[in-house]
Design brief:
Glucose Oxidase, domain 1, two-stranded antiparallel sheet, 9 helices, alpha/beta, 17 strands, 22% helix, 329 residues, single chain
Length: 329
């Protein structure tokens, strides 16, 4: 059974078991709304990036070095399910020639799930949970209790679009799981809280150093398969499980990310669950997820604490964003 088939089967099972559930008793626990950020909030954990977080992160930039953590976008990259990435240059050149100076130019046309391919930032409208069986969307809930009826729009999400996310300029921590594991992690290996603490200890830190509004990125070594072996890359992955996700959520971090396509362990150790970490982070806590990051660049640079800088593309109604975050130190 492929990961996609397993996901669809588990989702169907969850939908059936959720029939008749009420808002206070959902498939992922008790009612999680209204948000601590306010009943009308659509910015989630980006609210934690306060002026103090910005100045604190800026103070980490002492060597004047910066690297991009995003991978190149190209048709050869691994894509989940039936997603596509197709770029075309209309005409050659696209426009011109004009004026005595004979100006010409090139444009591009891009057809893709712009927020859900390559290095991708998951917005709050990307993941939800069906709490009851209505066909009109009222039985689906997202971050802050937003219903499927409220969010649905053929030409963009009516709520929780990525345009509501505030800029990220904050302290980030690399959790180098290769250093703890003795080498790259393998498919289905779960990262526990004890693993996180062990990785932090290798860098002279502890869980107490992860503060509200920080970013936590995981390096598993799974990125070694990127483009080189897309079938393996897409077949599953190592990552955090429910325990680690809840631990991070309690710390009220701003964002989590990894060198994998979901950040969480796939398949989940509980075969009845499909992407539960996404629901814990995005749906229940409004914590964003940045996937397919080139974390090996941080390992190569010997950096584990740095300033993370990223602004999602403000596409009104989008479920996520492309783009490359910057690590500076």
């Amino acid at each position: 059974m492929t990961i996609r088939t397993a996901f669809l089967a588990a989702t169907a099972a969850l939908s059936l078991s959720a029939a008749g559930a009420v808002a206070q008793d959902t498939p992922i626990g008790s009612k999680w709304w209204p948000s601590a950020h306010g009943a009308d909030d659509q910015a989630g954990s980006s609210n934690y990036v306060t002026p103090d977080k910005v100045t604190g992160a800026a103070a980490l930039i002492k060597e004047g070095k910066a690297i991009k953590l995003g991978r190149d976008y190209e048709p050869a990259m691994p894509l989940f399910g039936s997603r596509v990435f197709a770029l075309r240059i209309p005409g050659s050149p696209t426009g011109g020639t004009f004026g005595d100076n004979k100006v010409i130019w090139n444009d591009e046309f891009l057809a893709t799930e712009i927020g859900q391919v390559g290095t991708q930032f998951d917005g709050l409208g990307h993941i939800g949970v069906r709490v009851s069986g209505e066909d009109d969307g009222s039985g689906i809930r997202y971050y802050n209790g937003v219903t499927g009826t409220e969010i649905a729009g053929s030409y963009g999400l009516k709520k929780l679009g990525v345009e509501h996310v505030k800029p990220f300029f904050t302290t980030a921590h690399l959790i180098n799981m290769e250093a703890v594991n003795g080498g790259p992690m393998e498919l289905g290996q779960e990262i526990s809280v004890a693993d996180i603490e062990a990785a932090l200890a290798k860098d002279g830190k502890s869980g107490a150093d992860i503060k509200q509004g920080d970013v936590v990125l995981f390096h598993t070594g799974w990125g070694r398969h990127w483009i080189k072996d897309n079938d393996t890359f897409n077949s599953g992955e190592p990552g955090i499980g429910i325990e680690a996700a809840e631990w991070l959520a309690e710390k009220k971090i701003a964002l989590v990310g990894a060198d994998t396509w979901a950040t969480e362990v796939v398949p989940n150790p509980d075969s009845k669950l499909a992407f539960p970490v996404h629901q814990i982070l995005l749906v229940k806590n409004g914590i964003f997820n940045h996937e397919n990051l080139a974390t090996e660049r941080l390992v190569e640079a010997g950096v584990h604490t740095f300033a993370y800088i990223y602004v999602p593309m403000p596409i009104v109604g989008a479920t996520g964003s492309a783009g490359s975050p910057i690590a500076a130190w």
